[in-house]
Write a structure and sequence with these properties.
The chain is of the alpha+beta class. The protein is 22% helix and 32% strand.
């Protein structure tokens, strides 16, 4: 296993690469009460979203545990939620069960939209060259989670600004009949496909947690470090809020464990679940790991006891030495070819 910088990795960091996002589920929430309905369920301030805006949010149990994480995009006449594909059906069922007298309609749009991400410094210019109605300057200035209605080959398309791939870029939503022409056009414009291994390395370098990998139904959002991205501390009540506030105020924001970064010695990434130890004490476990092309070393995301989170803390993972590092492990400006 090597940490060589591949052409696909280099393209994502320096130019543009594309990612198949068929693993995402897509739910359309419409009706005049959609914002107030979701406001009482999700951790972020979805009611404040104006057309063309969006946010990252979590949906919690009353005990503060995560049911799902998602991106919410206010399109103007409806709100589009994108979620991990395996969570789509149970999430739809939960949302439906939460409806009482609200004028809200829920639709599974996973089959109606195909989703392709284009990431990298040249992504805005590349996307602008593929669609009409979204100029390069507009896309470059689009705020995180923003969205723009456009057209691809004459058919409706949606462009959203994304942050969860580890490298900034855009998701393009088109009808299923247009996904093959879209991928062909993206490739013709110079973007290269980003394979799973390189995409995973970039995600871990950026410290972006993935549901059912780095967080699950037992995770409190503060443990995964989502408070700055997914939680509004000025909105009204939502399900699970009491637990979040209790940790923040009584625990001074310090959860018993927290997701952090590790940089390790050796030439192989540890497996998920590998124990993290220090001075014969169990501190936690690895959730995701990869060889870092930028650092030339194994890296990992891991839950570590709160007393051992200081950067530089020495640890071992399966007997291999390493140290705790703040996230992100790699900043974009520090990536260079070798």
């Amino acid at each position: 296993m090597t940490a060589a910088i591949t052409s696909a990795y280099e393209a994502a960091r320096r130019r543009a690469a594309w990612i198949d996002r068929s693993d995402r589920g897509r739910i359309l929430v419409s009706g005049p009460d959609r914002a107030s309905f979701l406001q009482g369920l999700l951790t972020n301030d979805v009611a404040a979203l104006k057309p063309g805006q969006g946010c990252y949010a979590a949906y919690l149990t009353p005990q503060g545990r995560m049911i799902a994480d998602m991106h919410a995009y206010e399109l103007g006449e409806a709100m589009l939620l994108t979620v991990p594909g395996e969570l789509k059906d149970p999430l739809l069922e939960r949302l439906d069960q939460s409806l009482f007298s609200e004028d809200v309609q829920l639709r599974d749009m996973t089959g109606a939209y195909s989703q392709v991400a284009i990431v990298g410094p040249e992504a805005a210019a590349l996307v602008a060259g593929l669609v009409t109605g979204a100029e390069s300057g507009v896309l470059a200035a689009l705020r995180e989670h923003g969205n723009v209605s456009a057209r691809f080959e004459g058919d409706p398309a949606i462009v959203t600004r994304i942050d969860d791939a580890g490298e900034p870029g855009f998701d393009l939503f088109v009808g299923p009949a247009k996904v093959e022409p879209l991928v062909a056009a993206v490739a013709a414009a110079g973007a290269v496909p980003l394979d799973a291994a390189d995409a995973e390395a970039i995600r871990i370098e950026a410290g972006i947690p993935l549901f059912h990998r780095d967080m699950d139904e037992q995770t409190i959002p503060l443990e995964a470090g989502l408070e700055s991205r997914a939680i509004s501390f000025s909105k009204g009540c939502y399900v699970g809020q009491e637990v979040v506030i209790r940790v923040l105020h009584r625990g001074h924001g310090r959860a018993a464990r927290k997701l952090t970064g590790l940089v390790l010695d050796g030439h192989a990434a540890p497996p998920a679940g590998a124990p993290v130890r220090a001075a014969d004490r169990d501190l936690g476990h690895v959730t995701s790991a990869a060889m870092s092309p930028a650092l030339g070393r194994p890296i990992a995301l891991a839950y570590v006891h709160r007393d051992f989170l200081a950067p530089g803390t020495a640890v071992t993972v399966d007997g291999v030495h390493g140290e705790v590092r703040e996230l992100p492990l790699v900043r974009r400006s520090s990536v260079s070819a070798s």
